[in-house]
Specification:
The complex is a heterodimer.
Chain A (H helix, E strand, L loop, with lengths): L1 H7 L2 H26 L7 H18 L4 H24 L5 H18 L10 E2 L7 H20 L1 H11 L1 H6 L4 H27 L1 E2 L6 H14 L4 H17 L7 H15 L10 H9 L1 H9 L1
Antiparallel strand pairs in A: 1-2
Helix pairs in contact in A: 2-6, 2-9, 2-10, 2-11, 3-4, 3-5, 3-9, 4-5, 4-9, 6-7, 7-9, 10-11
Chain B lengths: L1 H29 L6 H17 L5 H24 L8 H23 L14 E4 L2 E4 H23 L1 H11 L1 H6 L4 H27 L6 H16 L4 H21 L5 H15 L14
Antiparallel strand pairs in B: 1-2
Helix pairs in contact in B: 1-5, 1-6, 1-8, 1-9, 1-10, 2-3, 2-4, 2-8, 2-9, 3-8, 5-6, 5-8, 6-8, 9-10, 9-11, 10-11
The chains are: A mainly alpha, B mainly alpha.
Chain lengths: 297, 291
């Protein structure tokens, strides 16, 4: 299948499509933490670089098979998510935002000085195992699992915590446990995305975990719509394609980007598709004639 | 050796303290991590540089000019990007709006001034004094005295004037202050102005001390100053001063006695430890859950 695809699709567009897929996985992870559960995490790129480095080192130096390396990348990120999630998620407020910024910076500085990771030069020569079909099959799997989770009892608990943590606890939810669950799952997806990227891009360096990258992923979630799976997919796709289209005005790109965030927050703080869920769209499409009638009354 | 490092640490720390004050004051009143603050500091450094190199101003005029410019800039940012959101949307939206402004300002400066670091010309005759075995440069003396003067000035304004009283009232309870007839929007605006002016002064002094000014200098300095504010206890003005000085000393001592390659990680490690062990910081008050 991949042979066919690379025959018919221009390599440049293929690369963009792959990056869209990888970004969707990372952004869906952050969406679980920030969009669904309402816990602001600003160090998602830290998890991505952990996943990328862990999987790259495993497959380059220990010749671990590709699927296991991907899994290990996700698991390492999830482990670190658990380690920083347990102490900080007990607290309310912006503490998580602060700790995750700090955590991602420490990870970046660590990889800058980490011998097996090539220090500041980075790692080159990672086997290019990630193909179009792996990325998009994983995207489909992640979207389905996400949708299942969000429609389950646990998913509703996560939404409840975002809306009002104290009320949710009063209803008998163990808020900290659910917050840690969302955080660990989100970190896992971040690590998985990083591992996919490492085995696609052939080369990684410590800057893949920079603060700007974390902000970029956060923007995908916010732009598309917090807590919404279609929204996050839209946001990830838009913010991957948009910079490519704006390449002509590359210098002004970030200027536009910053202004866009402010304008969006003022006029549409819930993002383009804030809280739109897949079954809402289905319902809306199915009931279109009925809505006209209602409008008629 | 130790005392020398301590002095260097205090010099660095006083610049963190100046920036941290802006974070802590804004957080104290509207519970917003003002991500634009690092960029305001960067603008301060550039305005000072502009005044010195293009208009040939002396150091004090440059600092004053930078402070005035950044006061206006800080109030403008608050008016354009934060006020329309206040009361209507979640704190998350305000935070993201702040990040947007921060990206906008640093890119704007990168377009205006290009990204390579620029140098300050010699604005102060460099002399070195000897205190026993310690070497003190005239620049360090200036930085320490000027920061101390600014902090004392701020403390006087906050504790002794009507505006300062209103600021303290707002940080205790915004709604109740509004009911008591305080023009809350004006006080928030003035808080941004005061914090921005201090950051600008810090920017000019750091620019001269390290002899480098570039458009992305604000991000890391801002994040670290924010760590300092949390370390001191976010929302507490004396806390920000103590936190800034402590963090500066820890960073310099860490570089001197541990390893220089982890310089940037020290501040964040301190941040995480503080949040785990004592989230209210050295001088902050414990936040009580309210329904």
């Amino acid at each position: 299948m991949d042979g066919l695809i690379s025959q018919y699709i221009d390599p440049y567009y293929l690369r963009i499509l792959m990056l869209i897929g990888i970004n969707i996985i990372a952004a869906l992870g952050l969406n679980l933490i920030t969009g669904v559960t309402g816990q602001l995490s600003m160090g998602h790129a830290g998890f991505m670089s952990l996943g990328a480095y862990a999987s790259a080192i495993l497959s380059m130096q220990l010749q671990v098979p590709y699927p296991l390396a991907l899994l290990a990348g996700g698991l390492v990120a999830a482990l670190f998510g658990l380690l920083i999630g347990i102490p900080t998620l007990r607290l309310q407020g912006d503490y998580l935002a602060m700790v995750t910024i700090g955590f991602a910076e420490i990870i970046r500085v660590f990889f800058l000085n980490f011998g097996p990771g090539g220090k500041a030069v980075g790692l080159a020569g990672i086997p290019q195992h990630t193909t179009f079909s792996t990325v998009w099959l994983l995207v489909i799997a992640v979207v389905l699992l996400n949708a299942l989770l969000l429609n389950s009892r646990s998913g509703r608990a996560l939404y409840a915590i975002r809306e009002d943590e104290i009320a949710a606890e009063a209803c008998g939810l163990h808020a900290t446990r659910y917050k840690v669950l969302a955080f660990v799952l989100g970190a896992f997806l971040g690590g998985l995305a990083g591992a996919l990227f490492a085995h696609y891009n052939y080369y990684i360096d410590p800057n893949i975990g920079s603060f700007m990258k974390s902000i970029e992923v956060l923007n995908m979630v916010v732009l598309g719509g917090m807590g919404s799976i279609p929204g996050t997919i839209l946001g990830a796709a838009l913010l991957t394609v948009l910079p490519e289209m704006l390449r002509v005005v590359a210098e002004y790109r970030l200027l536009f980007y910053g202004a866009l965030l402010v304008i969006l927050m003022i006029f549409r703080p819930n993002g383009l598709l804030g809280d739109v869920r897949i079954y809402d769209i289905k319902k809306r499409l199915g009931k279109h004639p009925e809505r006209k009638e209602v409008a008629g009354c | 050796m130790f005392w020398q490092q301590l002095l260097n640490g205090l010099t660095l720390g006083s610049s963190y303290a100046l920036i941290a004050l802006g974070y802590t004051m804004v957080y104290g009143i509207i519970q917003l991590i003002n991500f634009t603050h690092g960029e305001i500091y960067m603008f301060g450094a550039f305005v000072g540089l502009f005044l010195v190199t293009v208009l040939g101003a002396n150091l004090f005029v440059a600092i004053l000019g930078a402070m005035l410019f950044c006061m206006v800039l800080g109030m403008l940012v608050e008016r354009v990007a934060y006020r329309p959101l206040r009361g209507k949307s979640s704190r998350l939206s305000a935070l993201i709006s702040a990040i947007g402004v921060s990206i906008f300002l640093s890119t704007l400066m990168a377009l205006l001034a290009k990204t390579n670091p620029r140098r300050y010309p010699e604005v102060i005759s460099s002399q070195t004094f000897h205190l026993g075995s310690i070497e003190v440069s005239s620049l360090q003396v200036l930085i320490l005295f000027l920061s101390a003067a600014l902090m004392v000035g701020l403390q006087l304004v906050v504790q002794k004037t009507r505006v300062g009283k209103a600021m303290r009232a707002c940080s205790q309870d915004l709604d109740a202050s509004h009911l008591m007839g305080i023009n809350v929007n004006r006080i928030i605006s003035l808080t941004f102005a005061a914090g921005s002016a201090l950051a600008a002064a810090g920017g000019v002094m750091v620019g001269i001390y390290y002899n480098a000014v570039w458009p992305y200098m604000g991000t890391m300095a801002g994040l670290k100053a924010f760590c300092a504010a949390v370390l001191g206890g976010i929302g507490s003005i004396p806390g920000a001063m103590v936190g800034g000085l402590t963090l500066g000393v820890m960073e310099i001592l860490g570089v001197a006695y541990l390893s220089s390659s982890y310089k940037d990680a020290i501040a964040f490690a301190v941040l995480i430890l503080v949040l785990i062990i004592r989230p209210q910081g050295i001088m902050g008050q414990k936040i009580v859950k309210k329904v």
